[in-house]
Amino acid sequence: MAGETALPVVQRFCYLDSVLSSDANIDKDISSRIAKACYSFGRLARPLWDDHGIRLDTKVAVYKAAILTSLLFGSETWVLYRRHVRNLEQFHMRCLRRIAHVRWHNKWPNTEVHQICNISGIEALVTTAQFRWTGHVIRMSNNRLPKIIFYSELKDGARSRGGQGKRYKDTLKADLKLCSIVPADLETLVMERSKWRSLCKTSIQQFESDRIRSLEGKREQRKTATIRSAACYPCQICGQRCASRIGLYSHCRTHQH
Questions:
Q1: Does residue 39 lie in a domain region?
Q2: Rounded Cα distance, 42 and 53, in Å
Q3: In terms of Cα–Cα distance, which of 213, 199, 174 is closest to 81?
Q4: For the chain, does the N or the C end have fewer beta carbons within 10 angstroms?
């Protein structure tokens, strides 16, 4: 009730430009954020992104200020699954390739596009925002509502059968471990704001470097596997190498005509 008005019960609603769901699912919120960021990006296409007279670092600075702020609004409290990171990263890469004028036929990997634009991946940006927000909450006084909710646990209820949905604490603990930060030392580390900020910066930079190195290693493995498989099926007539036996068969039929 709001005064004398009865409020309807709904599964989801928009509050402060974020889509809140009854089951704490952020799929609709992610889709809404991508749609809003895509609209903002499209409005700047002709006056900014397609203008070859504007420097790339200027375009990236505008992208960070105007597009990423819309895309990652409220990301400090998101509980991200891999599908969410994948959708956000795909949009992020489409924008960067458009800004840097990298076409699909250039065959540049995402790691090179990140280096050209001098910007991190979406996962590193979200992790930075969440670490910063977590530090603010832990440093709050004990009577503040965000801190009470952050440390609270459900008193009643039962766990459902099967796998459980992730909590914010679960994703935070996993991200801390990925950044080589001991979760048990979190409350002690965040008390000194400047040191916590420096630690977050260096840890996330190392995390991003490890991620790029892992992606480059996987790409080299794919290229090596392709070369090896192609070397097994060479054409006896023209010497062209095929990646599979059926491909070699189809290629040999072209010599019969």
A1: yes
A2: 19
A3: 174
A4: C
23 contacts: CB under 8 Å, gap ≥ 6: 11
Domain housing 89: 10-119
The overall average pLDDT reported for the chain is 87
138 φ/ψ angles, rounded to the nearest 5 degrees:
-65, -35
What global pTM score does this model have? 0.80
Q: What is the mean pLDDT of residues 53-80?
A: 92
Tokens read off for 218: 């996987």
Q: Are strands 18-21 and 233-234 parallel, antiparallel or unpaired?
A: unpaired
Q: 149 lies in a domain? A: no
CA distance 240 to 247: 11
- The structure tokens 């008005």 sit at 5
Q: Where are the alpha helices (DSSP H) in 109-192?
A: 110-117, 122-139, 145-151, 168-178, 186-189
The kind and range of the H/E element at 65 are none
The DSSP result for 69-82, as a single string, is HHHTTTGGG----H
Rounded Cα distance, 214 and 222, in Å: 12
Backbone torsion region of residue 154, taken as left when φ is above 0, otherwise alpha when ψ lies between -120 and 50, otherwise beta:
beta
Look at residue 159 and tell me if it is in a domain.
no
Contact 127, 204 (CB under 8 A): yes
Q: Do 200 and 131 contact (CB within 8 A), yes or no? A: yes
pLDDT at 44: 93
Kindly report, residue by residue over 116-174, the tens digit of the pLDDT: 999 999 999 999 999 999 999 999 999 999 899 888 887 777 777 877 788 888 899 99
Structural domain count of the chain = 1
Number of helices (H), then strands (E), in the chain: 11, 4
pLDDT tens, position by position, 183-212: 999 999 999 999 999 999 999 999 999 999
